[in-house]
Amino acid sequence: MSRPRVDTVRLTGAAATAITASALLAVIALLAAQSIPAARQGLLHFVSANDWSYRAATFGAAAMIYGTVVVSAIALLLAAPLSFATAVFLSEICHRRLRMPLKAAIELLAGIPSVVYGLVGVLFLRDLMGAAFERLQWNAWQGDTLLTAGILLAVMIVPTMTTLADDALRSVPARSRDAARALGLTRAESVFSVVVPQARSGLVAAVLLGLGRALGETIAVFLIVGRADNRLPESFAGAMRTLIEPGQTITSKLGGAEPNIAAGDPLHGGAIALLALVLLSLVLLVTLAADRLRTGTFAEEH
Amino acid sequence: MRAVRPCAGTTGGLRRAGTARGVCFRVDHDSSERRAFSLGQPTQRAGPARRRPPGRSLWAGGTRAVLALLLVWPMLSVAAAPRALKINGSTTVNAVAAEAAEILRREKKMSITVDTQGGSSGGISGVGDRSIDIGMSSKPLTAEDRAKFPKASFAGTQIGMDAVALVVSADVWNGGVRALTKAQIRDIYESKIVNWKQVGGPDRRIVFFNKEPGRGTWEVFAAWLYGDTKRAPAVRHPEVGGNEETRQKVAATRGAITQLSSSWAENHPKVKAIAIRLDDGVAAAPDRATIASGRYPLSRPLLFITSGPPAGDAKTFIDFVRSPRGQELMRKHGYLGMSDLSTGTAKGAR
Questions:
Q1: Distance (Å) from the C-alpha of residue B224 to the closest C-alpha of chain A?
Q2: Which DSSP symbol is given to A191?
Q3: pTM (two decimals)
Q4: Which member of A175, A183, A226 has the closest CB to residue B17?
Q5: pLDDT value at residue B278
Q6: Structural domain span for residue B315
Q7: pLDDT (tens digit, 9 = 90+) per residue, A133-179?
Q8: Which of chain B's residues have a Cβ under 8 Å away from the Cβ of A297?
Q9: Does A42 map to a domain?
Q10: Residue A242, exposed/middle/buried by CB under 10 A (0-12, 13-18, 19+)?
């Protein structure tokens, strides 16, 4: 009686799973197929040259890759220490009754749509940074800079990283802490020489997943990064200087007008698809690494 | 690594405690079930295994209903929704088109969507690949546009005229920069002139907010400076998109200059349109009389682009904008209407 019904459910489930799984493959395949005309012009030129101009049909994306890396690096440098400190407090120090509302609040923060952060950037952070540059007499042009985008991204990824780092710390069995305390270690010693080392791969995974989010974030970055093409530093001092100048990331380019303009132009469209592939590979790499580390932690435990 | 080692043995010793706790949980669970039984409550938690058969058939029925709904729903919604007239392109033209669309929605119950993705080029591409009905353009159609979409037969209908002004922030204007020559503008665009004092202004670095390539404003500017937009060099200026954003950034930044539709700079306290000094030394300002006379070099037609001559809803819409009421909207937004032009015909539209 119930046989065919079970099969309907199983079949539907299998079909849905097949669609889900093939979506990723389809995206990669479509992008790869579309990017062929641009890839023919030379992949090395694409990632290393600094001459993006669709008018002149030259597509060197080095400055955008640089922008993406720099903005994400700033975000990680600022967000990681803050997230870890918060996670240690939540997991190891604060009282259970305080922990639950704090954890809930942080998870709510992680769910705020990124365009809201972008608006905060436009309405508040941009002017604040502009005023700060003015006060410091750094002779920056204005508030839209790579640094501004990095700071905003840091604010965006702190909740994600905190809640993941907290999970990693909590997955360390209580018996480890008990044993450490029983051996006479202080709480600080037990946290930093027993709990944190055991949670290490989970913590690295938290950083990587935060990085994944930072790499892919579009609208918030688009609004305050300045969108200036081909600004690549030539020296270390120049690199410091570019931080307080407008720049371009892969996402801000893809979020802009060019994908619309590229329709119908195989070379330009190919360059856009190739740009998307570069971003996709970066994010996939980071996410895969994070997943490996995370499953590693949980396997160790059982 | 090292830090884990010494306690690994200890935790090993404590593993029994963990197991014990596991047992403890199970005992807890049993007792709670027993409590539920003893209180005579419905066995919701206690007997999921026994309740499954009726639950499953309900679930399968539900699944089927959901699947059926998923299949039928798109058809229903497609049948129910009227086909909207899709318009996309230049923010310059959008100022008028959005208002015209509002009037037609109200008075003729037309369904119209107006968007500004990608500026003029976005509009032309949209008509080219048939994803929209009308493209708004603030630049003339070029051979390049036609070559990109060989299958499309673009038709442009002019609705008026506008000028691209070079717009500076108030501090530059007050510092004495009121007109620039074409050569000076080119040197500023190519970052050969980087300080306003090099052109008789205040001692302040020049911040050029470049309109995104593809925007009609940029196309007209680059075509004027370099003859052909393809010869425009790659520059490293921060890019801006729509007119609102552009004006806001220039107003908020000292030492700023940008290319902007002249009507967007009229009567604004913080952004000022400068004149272009012509070869004969006369400064041509982007005001209505100079634009209409043809003396101002950076003027441009405003167009609606369709695939083939306008027909149906698209024709209704375009005819409305070309009617006296629509043309009044053009003037309200600071553009020149068709009757303001010396020839009055669709000059530059094709």
A1: 15
A2: I
A3: 0.74
A4: A175
A5: 94
A6: 83-161+301-340
A7: 989 988 787 889 999 999 999 999 999 999 999 999 999 999 999 99
A8: none
A9: no
A10: buried
